[in-house]
Amino acid sequence: MSGDKVSRQKPCHHCKRRSISAPAGTAMIHYEKSWLYRHCSSLQQRDRQAQKAGQLFSGLLAMNVVFLGSAFISSMIFNHVAITLADVWILLSILKVVCLCWIIYYLLGTSRQPHAVLYRDSHAGPVWIRGSLLLFGSFSVLLNVFQIGYSIIQIHCKSKVEIVFPSIEILFVSTQAFFLWHHSKDCIQVQHNLTRCGLMLTIATNLLLWLLAVTNDSIHMEIESQLREVEQRLAGNETNLCTCPNTTTCKVFQKGYILLYPFNTEYCLICCSVLYVMWKNVGRRISHHHAPHIKPKFKLHGVVFGPLLGAAAVIIGICVFMMYQIQATGSAPNRQVFVMYYSYYIVLLPLMSVCAVVGTIIHALEKRELDTLKNPTRSLDVILLMGAALGQIAMSYFSIVAIVATNPKDLLNSLILSYSVLLIFQYITQNIFIIDGLQREPFVAAIEARHAGHAGQHPVDSELPGEEMTTPRNTQEHTQASPNKEEEVSEEQNHEAHDQRRVSVLELGQEFRRVSLSYMHSYSHLSWKRKALKEISFFLVLCNIILWIMPTFGAHPVFENGLEKSFYGYSTWFAIVNFGLPLGVFYRMHSVGGLLDVYVSA
After folding, report:
1. Which residues, listed in sequence order, are joined to residue 187 by a DSSP beta bridge?
2. What is the pLDDT of residues 431-442, one digit of tens each?
3. Phi, psi dihedral angles at 187 (to 5 degrees)
4. Same domain for 142 and 214?
5. Rounded to two decimals, what is the model's pTM?
6. 365 is a domain residue
7. d(Cα 280, Cα 111) in Å, to the nearest integer?
8. Are 276 and 380 in contact (CB under 8 A)?
């Protein structure tokens, strides 16, 4: 704990003597300044050495925990007799309990110490990340509730560990989500080594939970595929004694568990990224130059064609996904549904690639300077984008080799080949566009000019011709100027109520007109470069959302088409798919956050 002592050292009283006035040019002052410089430099050097030592020790701790857990999980896969799933659950439960103890200690002890959180990283833990944590955390909690209910119904063939493990998981997920929501921006200045070890241990636990989820998902998919073949041959004869009873409750728990299962993997990966940024920020001191004076916020302006094209892509994608789920999940998947699925991708992927290339060219034409300040969040975003893309790119190359080696002239095979090539190109172009946009300064000068110009501009309402002729007061006076004297009192009351409804309708239409003109006014005042960047970013956001939805909720044609599975073998292709598919899903979700940052800064 020597790093904690060095990091908590207060500046010595000699450092305050710089402000003491003394006759300039004396030898005594020069000697004192030289000694003070050497003294402060030695303290900073010792502080950096202690920080590097703490990072190295905590990193080694996490590495050993990950290797131990990976050995347990691998042993369970290859020798499920000696190491069972219950043994893995016991190990992970111990890790989660230790992490829970540290998180509670951080919440109640470390963060409440005097001068504990003097700085907060404004780039860490953006709203979309924390919102994703709450969303996927809630789904993970619901997933474990379904797992507990499913195990209780089958208590005659389930062990008690299958009930205890998800119960601890609920407590761990809830506490961790609360911790990351409130403290993801912390730059803790006390207990450096303990905090680093706690963060790294939590990262290792989430990585092992992700690895177990991926492994269990592969086992579930394998069992489901084998059961499908058994149903075709044996016409539904049951061979498993531990089956779900034919009751509504059991079916709900079973279907809910399968539906919510992918969200648990996404939650673990997001937690790892946020915890890593917190680990990098331990002991970090942020100067005032690092804090932006004007932080751009997300506002839906400057986009017209991007939302329209993106909404069309989302709607068509949902229709394709529903038709695929209905036909491809049956006992005999239809060949035409695969042709439709890959055709949708072949149309959408080139459009996304062209937009990304155009956006990269616009970035090159801009005069914005690069953001060279140290930012752990931005560095992690770049690493995650590049690393998560490797999973889907690797799967695409495996598919290309399998198709070229078999029958590339077949219609479905040629579509899969085109899909794989276009997917690789789309990943590369989109990564270049996002990374280039993240490394540039936002349009701060343009934002300041727009805010300053609002004071000197006339309101939008005054620019409208004949605005005074359509105000509610004038309309009401016009309707009341010509009363019908022959009507009775009851009819006059009905007319007054009708006039009031007309006034409210006119007010609503007038407000809609004012908002529309204000939106078009803000759109017309943007330069063509900013318009193009915002349109491209928003379109790519919606496209990545639909490309995230489809594989997340069960569309896995890379396994169900049977081509790669027959070429590489059942077990080998399962391992490839379950390595690349979760990374591809995580990439789509993470790229949405990067594209939103590019949209806001444009």
Report:
1. 119
2. 999 888 877 766
3. -115, 85
4. yes
5. 0.70
6. yes
7. 17
8. yes
